[in-house]
Specification:
By secondary structure, the chain is mainly alpha-helical. The protein is built from ten helices and five strands. It folds into two domains: 2-138, Ribonuclease III domain (Ribonuclease iii, N-terminal Endonuclease Domain, Chain A); 149-219, 2-Layer Sandwich (Double Stranded RNA Binding Domain), CATH 3.30.160.20. The protein is 55% helix and 11% strand. The strands form two sheets. A three-stranded antiparallel beta sheet has the order 3-4-5, covered by helices on one side. Strand 1 and strand 2 form a beta hairpin. The termini are far apart. 28% of the residues are buried.
Length: 220
């Protein structure tokens, strides 16, 4: 059966049906195929990066692969494929909008990759995966992708031979188990410190660093 979203024709329609079935429907669901697809995806992306970037270090290749196969990247690709509308969900998950949830979208896409692998062979599955990831792979920014805002800001300032940013907690409130932190980020050259809030000190610092990066990018 042709599955136009990934331009692949399944010989075993049951594999496709299983790959699109969430566990809320019953025992015959995508979880085992997801397990398989996760490994196949990792190998295909590792191979693609290894060949595309022969001069990059293991650390850089690992960072790029982690970015490409993480839940957020998979769910974004699944949305681009309009995969959510194809997922079979139990009544509860359907009512709560499970087809929009990152985890379900990412898991379904991995299951679909596992199903293609079982229905064909590794080389065919590799072609399908590379087709899905074509734009992602062609537009990778090796220097930035997968790096958090604090790291990017530090590298930017170092490249300009400027002092490193200073992060300071200016406020925290809420119960012990769900506090909100407000952090300021002070950078030489900015007339005032930039503040941001988050559910943890680290998250707030990352958010503040992201705001500072935006300022630098908009002024250069």
């Amino acid at each position: 059966m042709p599955f136009s979203l990934i331009d692949y024709c399944f010989k075993d329609i049951d594999l496709l049906d299983t790959a699109l079935t969430h566990r809320s429907v019953g025992k015959n669901n995508y979880e085992r195929l997801e397990f398989l697809g996760d490994s196949v995806l990792g190998l295909v992306i590792t191979d693609a990066l290894f060949n595309a970037y022969p001069d990059e270090s293991e650390g850089t290749l690992t960072r790029l692969r982690s970015y490409l196969v993480k839940k957020e990247s998979l769910s974004r690709l699944a949305r681009e494929l309009n995969l959510g509308k194809q997922i079979k969900l139990g009544a509860g998950e359907m009512k709560s909008g499970g087809w929009r949830r990152d985890s379900i979208l990412a898991n379904t896409l991995e299951a679909l990759i596992g199903a293609v692998y079982l229905d064909s062979n590794f080389l065919t599955c590799k072609d399908v995966v590379l087709s899905i990831y074509e734009n992602e792979l062609n537009s990778l920014d090796v220097e930035r992708v997968g790096k958090d805002p604090k790291t990017l800001l530090q590298e930017l300032l170092q490249s300009k031979k400027m002092p490193l940013p200073i992060y300071t907690i200016v406020d925290e409130f809420g119960e012990a188990h769900k506090k909100t932190f407000t952090v300021s980020c002070q950078v030489d050259g900015l007339s005032q410190s930039i503040e941001a809030s988050g559910r943890s000190k680290r998250f707030a610092e990352q958010s503040a660093a992201s705001k500072v990066l935006e300022i630098f990018e908009n002024t250069n």
